[in-house]
Every structure is written in structure tokens, then in C-alpha cells.
Specification:
glycosyltransferase, six-stranded parallel β-sheet, 15 helices, Glyco_trans_9, Glycosyltransferase family 9 protein, transferase, Rossmann fold, 371 residues, alpha/beta, 17% strand
């Protein structure tokens, strides 16, 4: 009987106004962005509650620019330090949004009064006070809706993906990017004169090393660039410093192009957020920048593999977000030389650059391929 009580909603006394509620999402950038609607849903349900986000050190700054989040903490790697942090912050309700034994154990050791986690992790059965039967990845639900199911014990129900864009309230840092070139000193010194010619600005984010999803071939990004009139669009090739070696063929091909700027590894995450907000669009695979751009409300195009369940689960949701997915059977991609080279999956190579170029042109009502 005690176990089945863990599947019941919280008692009304536990949901008194003004509770301190911690959302623990300690994985990557895309996962953090996907979980931010939970904070907005909590604020809508109880404007007096304090929303606390426990994340990792790399993504904490993004969370600090979400007005629905009141406090942000970076999770220590050491379990004892994490337990001490949770004991000092002392949330009334702890929600383990990404299943993690270490999070479950530290919340248990800190004796947090209400601990919510997934039913489908055995380690949670003893360590959580409330368990949520999160739907299967094959259910067809977007990951944002899956995460929002963790709020069901609190009486918060969100089942409609069309509600998600209105739950994003990200506010880029004021004054950090007055123009696309103004995100940082490093960005401003690249080719500032190029931004004064009336072109649309579009980010390309291949992320061949840091992303775990299937990626579009690099040579297709080159063809995309060349299919659109250089007088119409200025392209920014973005990625982390770790991506640079893998992106060299693309960067070298366009090193002297007047309408292409290399931004790989040149911006902090906060600067990159401001930079995205000032651009017109972004094209990427299923990466953190894709979800960040969608949440910021700019034109966003995700390029996805052929598995329908992956497309439904991970597609970006935003007022101007869309996807193109392959119809060729997915066979998986191969990585060479310790992950520094990627042989794309045939399903990603089946997405034609012409189709992507047509989609980008549709954002801005452009004409067809230049002569």
C-alpha cells in the first residue's frame, strides 16, 4: 500500500501557495531549454511559488535569463557536496526531471520532504516519495510534454504541444547584442562591415562533435550556402571550440566568402544566446542551439533523421520552428579518428540541400536559386 501511495497526487496541504520547487535538469543545453516550460507552468499555477533550477555549470547562465526561474544552482560533481547544497537550499518539492541515481540519492540523503521522479527507474522506488509513470518515448509525445508530466502530482496538466511556445519567456541579456555583430568584442572584430548591407542573417550550427544526434553532411551546408543569392543572406557558421577540427572543410571552403562568417568557438553561451536572438534564422540538426533558437522565437529549421519517434520527440517547438525529416531508412552514422570525423547516416544524406534552401528562402519571400 505504501508503494501505491507514491503514485497518488500530492495532498492539498503540500501544495500551499508559496512553495519552493526545485527542477533538477543537469544534462545538456538542449535538455535544459526543453525543460524551461515547466517553470512557466509552475508560475501560472502558483505565481507565489519559488522556482529553483538545478543544472550543470555549462548551462546555468542560460537558465538565469529565464524570468520564470527565481534561483539557479550548478550541481556539484561530488555526491556529498550535492547533498549539502540541497540541504542548504531546502526546496519543499524536488523534481528529478532527468532520471539520475546521483540526484535521487542526494535528494534522499538531504531529507527533502517531497521527492518526485520517474516510476521506471528502480532506484527511485525507495528514494522518491512520489513516482510518475512517464510515457514511453514511442508515445508520440514531444519531450517537452514528457517533462511536463512530472508536474502531474502537483495538479498541473499540459497535454497540448501548441501550448508550449507560449510557455517560453527567455530574455536575452540586455545590450549584449544590439546588432548581430555586437554579441561580443570577438564577434564584432570579425567582419563588421558585412552586417551593414541589408542581408538577412542565418546561423548554421552543424555541431558534428558535441551533438549526439544524426547530422547533415558538411558538404550539404556548402551547397545550401551556394544555392542562395549571396546578396540576400549572410551566414554564420557556429559551434563550440571542440567542433572546429571537424568543421574545417566547411570553414576553409568559405574562408574568403563575403557573406560567410566563422563564429566557431568565439562566443560564450550567454553571448551566443544574445547573438541568436538578433539573427533572422537558424538551420541545424537536433542540437541545443536548435531548441534555443526556437524558444527565442526566430525562424528555426531542424534537420532530422527518418525515425518518426525521434522527430516527434525532439522536434523544436516555437512560433516559427519547423522540421524537415528524411524518408530513407536510418542505418546509423559512423565516427572515425576518435570522433573527429563523421560518416553521415544515409537517411540524413537523403535530405536535399535544394529543399532546405527553398525553405530558407520561404522565410524571407526570396526568389529562386541565383544565376
Amino acid at each position: 500500500m505504501a508503494f501505491f501511495r507514491k503514485l497518488q497526487p500530492l495532498p492539498a496541504t503540500a501544495m500551499a501557495p508559496g512553495r519552493r520547487i526545485m527542477l533538477a535538469k543537469t544534462t545538456q543545453l538542449g535538455d535544459l531549454v526543453i525543460s524551461l516550460p515547466m517553470a512557466a507552468a509552475l508560475k501560472q499555477h502558483d505565481p507565489r511559488c519559488t522556482v529553483i533550477l538545478l543544472t550543470n555549470r555549462r548551462t546555468a547562465d542560460i537558465a538565469r535569463h529565464c524570468p520564470d526561474v527565481d534561483e539557479v544552482y550548478a550541481a556539484p560533481e561530488d555526491g556529498a557536496e550535492l547533498t549539502a547544497l540541497l540541504a542548504s537550499v531546502r526546496p519543499d518539492i524536488f523534481i528529478q526531471v532527468n532520471p539520475c541515481r546521483r540526484l535521487a540519492q542526494s535528494a534522499y540523503d538531504a531529507a527533502l520532504p517531497i521527492r518526485i521522479g520517474s516510476l521506471f527507474r528502480l532506484y527511485n522506488w525507495q528514494r522518491c516519495t512520489h513516482l510518475v509513470p512517464i510515457s514511453s518515448p514511442n508515445s508520440g509525445l514531444n519531450k517537452r510534454l514528457l517533462d511536463l508530466q512530472y508536474l502531474r502530482p502537483l495538479g498541473i496538466i499540459v497535454n497540448d504541444a501548441t501550448q508550449i511556445p507560449a510557455l517560453y519567456h527567455l530574455a536575452p541579456p540586455a545590450g549584449a547584442a544590439a546588432t548581430p555583430a555586437g554579441a561580443s568584442t570577438a564577434a564584432a572584430t570579425l567582419h563588421p562591415a558585412q552586417f551593414a548591407q541589408g542581408r538577412r542573417t542565418v546561423i548554421l550550427s552543424p555541431a558534428l562533435v558535441t551533438a549526439r544526434s544524426h547530422q547533415w553532411p558538411l558538404e550539404f551546408y556548402t551547397e545550401l550556402i551556394e544555392r542562395i543569392d549571396p546578396r540576400e543572406v549572410h551566414w554564420f557558421i557556429c559551434g563550440t571550440a571542440e567542433d572546429r577540427a571537424c568543421l574545417q572543410p566547411l570553414l576553409q571552403r568559405h574562408a574568403h566568402a563575403e557573406n560567410v562568417t566563422d563564429m566557431v568557438g568565439r562566443l560564450s553561451l550567454t553571448e551566443f544566446m544574445a547573438f541568436i536572438s538578433q539573427c533572422d534564422g537558424l538551420v541545424a540538426g537536433s542540437t541545443g542551439p536548435l531548441h534555443l533558437a526556437a524558444a527565442l522565437g526566430i525562424h528555426t529549421l531542424g534537420l532530422f533523421q527518418s525515425r518518426r519517434s525521434d522527430v516527434q520527440r525532439w522536434r523544436p517547438l516555437g512560433p516559427m520552428a519547423s522540421v524537415i525529416h528524411s524518408h530513407v531508412r536510418c542505418r546509423g552514422e559512423r565516427r572515425l579518428a576518435h570522433g573527429t570525423s563523421v560518416i553521415p547516416c544515409p537517411c540524413m544524406a537523403a535530405i536535399p540541400p535544394a529543399t532546405v534552401a527553398e525553405h530558407v528562402r520561404s522565410w524571407f519571400s526570396m526568389r529562386g536559386q541565383p544565376n
